[in-house]
Amino acid sequence: MSLVELLAAALLLLSALVVVRASNAVHAALALIANFLVIAAVYVGLEARFVAMTQVIVYAGAIVVLFLFVIMLLSAAQANVGKDLLPGLQVPAILGSAALAGVLIYALSRFSAPANPGVLNGGLPQALGPLLYGPEKWLYALLLVGFLLLVATIAAVVLVEPERIVPEARKPAAEEKELVER
Amino acid sequence: MQETVLLPLIILLPLLGFAVLGLWGRRLPEPVPGVVASALVLGSLLLGLVLLGQGGARWAVEDWIPGVPLSFVLDNLSGLMVMVVAGVGFLIHVYAIGYMHSDPGFSRFFSYFNLFIAAMLVLVLGDSLPVVFIGWEGVGLASYLLIGFWYTERVNADSARKAFIVNRIGDLGFLLGMGVLWAHFGTLSISELRELIAPEGEFAVGINVAAVSLAAFLLFIGAIGKSAQVPLMVWLPDAMAGPTPVSALIHAATMVTAGVYLLCRNSFLYFDLPDVSFWVVLIGMLTALYGALCAFGQTDIKRIVAYSTLSQLGYMFVAAGVGAYWVAMFHVLTHAFFKALLFMSSGAVIHALGGEQDVRKMGGMWNYLPQTRIHGLVGALALGGLPLLSGFWSKDAILAASYEYSALLWFVMLITAALTALYSMRWFVLVFMGKYRGHEHPHESPAVMTWPNHVLTLGSLFAGFVGLPYVVQSENLLEPWLNKAIVHHEHEKLPVLDEWALILVSAVVALGALYYGYRFFQAEAAGRLPAWFTRFQEASLRSFYADDVYNALLVRPLKSLAKILFDADGGLLGGFWWLGSATGNLGALLARLETGYLRFYAAGLLIAAVLLVLVGVIR
Amino acid sequence: MSWLVVSALLFTIGAYGVLSRRTAILVFLSIELMLNAANLALIAFARQWGSLDAQVVTLFVIAIAAAEVAVGLGLIVAIFRRRETTGVDELRGLRG
Amino acid sequence: MDALLHVGLFLPLLAGIALLIWPSLGRRLAVAASGVTFLIAAWLFARASGEAYTFQALLLEPIQMYYALRLDGVGLVLWLAVALTTLLAVFIAKVPTRMLGWALLMESGLLGIFAADDLILFYVFFEATLIPSLLMLGLYGGRERLKAAYTFALFTLAGSLPMLAALFAVRYLGGAPSFLYSDLAAHPVSGSVADWVFLGFLVAFAVKTPLFPLHAWLPSFHAENHPSGLADAMGTLYKVGLFAFFKWAIPLAPEGFAQFQGLLLVVAAFSAIYAAWLAFAAKDWKRLLAYGGVSHMGLGALGLFSGNAEGVTGALFLLAASMVYTGGLFLVVGRIAERTETLEIGPVRGIAKSAPALSVLTMFLVMAMIGLPGLSGFPGEFMALLGAWKISPWLTFIAFTAVIAAAAYALTAYQALFQEEQNRVVSDLTPREWAFAVAIVAGVVLAGVYPKMFTQMIHPLSEALAKLLGGGA
């Protein structure tokens, strides 16, 4: 691992810690942007250039900005609101996270890469395109995801739409009297 | 023996009467239903006689239910019964036209009566056990309907129900007996069974004697129920709740003898089974004695006769048990005459007294009822065994047969015969002798009631002569004729001297007891009885507490257990509901884990993730 | 290989954030962090195997994350309108 | 012939739907539809030649499920019984018109149960019939109807789930290529699988037989249903357990049946005597008839589980016969309840005086129920006894003490209502009721006097089953 890489890793972990510990939500969101940008850089180093671009544009550019908007909109910059109803969770949270880290790293340590990996071609769009749009691979998944985005858009609009006044429900019609025959 | 469709017609005639009278009888004016019903029974009788004269008949539908035919046979045995059932039945039908006069249920009565005749003919003519069973239950139904004929009185309805239920106990025995025969012989046709079990007057080689014994015993239980033998005798006295012609026809002359007929018809099961036959003898003997003892205390004119019926049925069972099947049938025949006569004389007396049945309020009828007094006298003497009357000959035959079986049995039966003579005189004296103790204005019955009694009187006087002992007539009419249809062992005839001695002894005992009874019970009529006898009568009146014992030991415990179980069954459903709510409670318990804290769930997720990874890695 | 370790640590930190943060928005931020950790792992694996498929999947994750954020933030806004709070602990109407 | 089969099967369904939509069509439509159905059943019965009427069409290709009908002798007899009882029920019961529609829907389901030759199709009919039955109880029942409906639904569904599992197990573990009866029967499951499969079927069918202790839903089901007896009569028809054992459970897992046979015989015998005993303590007519029905089905089950030809024939005959007379009794009790405004035994007495024909009709049906020879109750009971005795005399003895108890409870209740001192004047049979009486009496007497007509249809199939079980004829 090169020095740059070590630096990047350190930055990642540091910014992540800021995200989860910062008392100001705006700071946390900004730290997340920093984190995402560093990850994008790492992606470039890992021969995933198109993904890196997407990461910058979609994640750092759109998503986190959306977060910032919402924080502003709700005036929710203050992170520690109200009373902590589960004060006892702090210690288990740390222990549990540590345990998770432990088992994950242990799991990774037992894993070995194949001897001769394939070629990534730098993860450029030319390489990804045929895969993404090839009907034999991911095309249908892509269409589905597109549809999902559409649905999510509509859902978001519906969710934040101001409440309408619902007209009073119709009273059920008087129960039909049934004929009793002899 | 011919195949003819006329045979079921014998049954269909009264059945037709049942249907027609049941549906439209109420629209007919009074005597018409009775006349129609009587005519149909007469038709059956004549048809039966014609067919019998042509040497019998049979008719069958194969595989009526799989493996079981619907078959009828008219041979000498069933022929005799047809004569008794349709013949005596016809007389009683005619009698009932007078007796049931102006009853609102007149047509209903004759409809039921015809149903009874039809069912009884099915029973008698059936050549496969299930067909016999149809008749068997059919007569039970008719008996139930007729005992409860005046159903608005609770006691009548109760008696009817009791008769049906007690009979059903016996019927279960019949059913299970058929089960045994079916399982071991694969057929229920009587003639086929006879071929399989006793082809040549002997049990077939290699036959399963235990199975035959069991079947015979179970069928015998059926006979016990139908013929009101100990211990299922409790229904018969109560059955007197029905109109008197019913008691005469069903509970004296025909239906109750069905048990005896069953034993004779299936004698191929019993004749070679000393164990089972011993039980038949024992039950018959106990019943004969018990019935006779109970008759002494009764105050109801019909119940006296009813207990005498019990006792006489016991005689018939003894005869069947000792292997003298023709003698049993002989007694069925003579008993039908004199017992029907006794009942119908009782009916005439009841009729004369406007419905009074208590003998303590009778007496002196000799002066009021010039025809019925003869009927009553002949009936009582025949029952009591006055020499030369029909009852004497058949009873003597039974005594002779039991003497061959065992001297002790003979002695008990002789004592019973003496008791019979005594209580028959008690009946006669209390009803006809002395001074009238009631307040009605007795009047003789109309001709439609007396003429049948005339015929029965002739029967009671002379029917015995068809079955004379061999010392009197070397070959009597009945024995060889019946034995063509019965499987039995030939008995050594008693020496002539012994036979004469037995006849003499029973004649002397009967005469003596009749005379002593005649004297003794004039004291009762006058209300002067020894104290010990009064105490005995009290116990006898309550039939030695048989009903109380049954109620305490069986009926009440079963009823209360039914109540307990009924509630417990509701609890069973409650149990299922409990199971349901227990599941619900468990769910509620688990639901407490759902705290509603998002982060609590997240912590759960985290732990689960750790564990999953651990499992994945370690595996 | 080492990036995988970094990814695991990032994931753990995100998980810690989910557990310790009390406002919905910050919990959501932590979830994004975890998603990215997963993405990083995918890219690292793609590199090691030389498989572009993993990169495609990463693209999908990003797209779906966008959809998720849109809906999730919409929910947060809608809830805030009604309950005047974004505290996750206060929203516990669904409890046993 | 095919067309008639489908018409018979679906005509009641269509008529029922029409009645639910347009109740003004009235009872005429219900009577006409069920009447035509009965005529079709009778026509098919009369024309039966020993070959079954069959029809097959592939319905769901991926799982090889067929729309397969097969109406053999047993099916025809049961069709006749169901069609007759439904006709009588919609003819006589005084109920809201829509209820007649539900009854017709039930009829279609029941006919389907007896005609289905594909296990999935059978399951569909078996479960679909539950819906109208539940709705009739829930919509038109008495005060506690919802609890009764819950109970009924829970018992039925709890039974159906294991059956669903068994249904898939029997095909896929048995290796049959489809759900057709012929395929499944050609590939019976064996070993412990057979045990589990049979157990699955057992639970479902024991609820519907019903056998102790799964009969617990029945008394409240009947007690809470509409007093007219329509729903009770239809519910009686729905007690198809014995048929289902005969057609599906036993042939598809004969080894499983052999494992459970002893236990089943004991349970059947116990059901018979236990329920008869309870009926004696029942205080209202519907519970009495409910327990009486359980008792009879216990006797039938004893015959069926004895596994020999006469026992099986007896069980199926008893099933068909009891549908008619028990259903008829429920309807008659409904008519009586309408006159006296109570179902309780006791308060009203002596009504035979004012309604003699009604009392005779009731007596007649009661006698049929307690198995009087010459009426339809007897041949079935008797054959069941003959079959069961071969297997276990003691159990037979115990179970058939129920016939004594039957006389006791039935006549006691009859006496209480019709006899003794009259304290109520009621009207006698109306012309409509006379027509009902004539029809049911004719049916009951025909089956009692000439059972051959029906047993000759049933017996060959029973013999086949007995042969399969190794018993022979």
UniProtKB/TrEMBL annotation, chain A:
Transmembrane segments: 32-50, 57-77, 89-108, 139-160
Class of enzymatic activity (EC top level): translocase
Source domain of life: Bacteria
Family per record: Belongs to the complex I subunit 6 family.
Membrane topology recorded in Swiss-Prot or TrEMBL: Multi-pass membrane protein
Record-listed E.C. numbers: 7.1.1.-
Keyword Transmembrane helix: yes
Stated name of the protein: NADH-quinone oxidoreductase subunit J
Transmembrane among keywords: yes
Molecular function terms from GO: NADH dehydrogenase (ubiquinone) activity; oxidoreductase activity; quinone binding
Principal subcellular localization: membrane
Alphabetized InterPro entries for the sequence: NADH_UbQ/plastoQ_OxRdtase_su6 (IPR001457), Nuo/plastoQ_OxRdtase_6_NuoJ (IPR042106)
Free-text function comment from the UniProt entry: NDH-1 shuttles electrons from NADH, via FMN and iron-sulfur (Fe-S) centers, to quinones in the respiratory chain. Couples the redox reaction to proton translocation (for every two electrons transferred, four hydrogen ions are translocated across the cytoplasmic membrane), and thus conserves the redox energy in a proton gradient.
Subcellular location: Cell membrane
TrEMBL record, chain B:
Limits of the NADH-Ubiquinone oxidoreductase (complex I) chain 5 N-terminal domain: 68-110
Residue ranges of domain NADH:quinone oxidoreductase/Mrp antiporter transmembrane in the record: 128-420
Name of the protein in question: NADH-quinone oxidoreductase subunit 12
InterPro entries membership: NADHpl_OxRdtase_5_subgr, ND/Mrp_TM, NU5C-like, Proton_antipo_N
GTP-binding in keyword set: no
GO BP term, pick one: electron transport coupled proton transport
Record localization: Endomembrane system; Membrane
Residue spans crossing the bilayer: 6-24, 36-57, 77-97, 109-126, 132-151, 172-191, 203-225, 246-264, 276-297, 304-326, 332-353, 374-393, 405-433, 454-472, 500-518, 600-618
Entry keywords, A to Z: Membrane, Oxidoreductase, Transmembrane, Transmembrane helix
Record-listed E.C. numbers: 1.6.5.11
NCBIfam families (UniProt xref): NDH_I_L, PRK06590.1
Any one Pfam family match given in the protein's UniProt record, by short name: Proton_antipo_M
Membrane topology: Multi-pass membrane protein
DNA-binding keyword on record: no
From TrEMBL, chain C:
Membrane topology, as annotated: Multi-pass membrane protein
Keyword NAD among record annotations: yes
Alphabetical GO biological process terms: ATP synthesis coupled electron transport
Keywords: Cell membrane, Membrane, NAD, Oxidoreductase, Quinone, Translocase, Transmembrane, Transmembrane helix, Transport
Pfam family, one: Oxidored_q2
Family: Belongs to the complex I subunit 4L family.
Function, in words: NDH-1 shuttles electrons from NADH, via FMN and iron-sulfur (Fe-S) centers, to quinones in the respiratory chain. The immediate electron acceptor for the enzyme in this species is believed to be a menaquinone. Couples the redox reaction to proton translocation (for every two electrons transferred, four hydrogen ions are translocated across the cytoplasmic membrane), and thus conserves the redox energy in a proton gradient.
Assembly and interaction partners: NDH-1 is composed of 15 different subunits. Subunits NuoA, H, J, K, L, M, N constitute the membrane sector of the complex.
NCBIfam families assigned: PRK05715.1-2
Name of the protein this chain belongs to: NADH-quinone oxidoreductase subunit K
Automatic annotation (TrEMBL), chain D:
Pfam name, any one: Proton_antipo_M
GO MF term set: NADH dehydrogenase (ubiquinone) activity; NADH dehydrogenase activity; ubiquinone binding
Entry EC number(s): 1.6.5.11
Domain NADH:quinone oxidoreductase/Mrp antiporter transmembrane residue range list: 116-404
Main location: membrane
Gene Ontology CC terms, in alphabetical order: endomembrane system; membrane
Top enzyme category: oxidoreductase
GO biological process, one term: electron transport coupled proton transport
Subcellular location as annotated: Endomembrane system; Membrane
Membrane-crossing residue ranges in chain numbering: 6-22, 29-46, 66-92, 122-140, 152-173, 193-218, 230-250, 262-281, 288-306, 312-334, 355-374, 394-414, 434-451
Membrane-related topology note: Multi-pass membrane protein
Keywords, ordered alphabetically: Membrane, Oxidoreductase, Transmembrane, Transmembrane helix
Entry similarity comment: Belongs to the complex I subunit 4 family.
PANTHER family: NADH-UBIQUINONE OXIDOREDUCTASE CHAIN 4
Protein's recorded name: NADH-quinone oxidoreductase subunit 13
The species this protein was found in: Calidithermus roseus
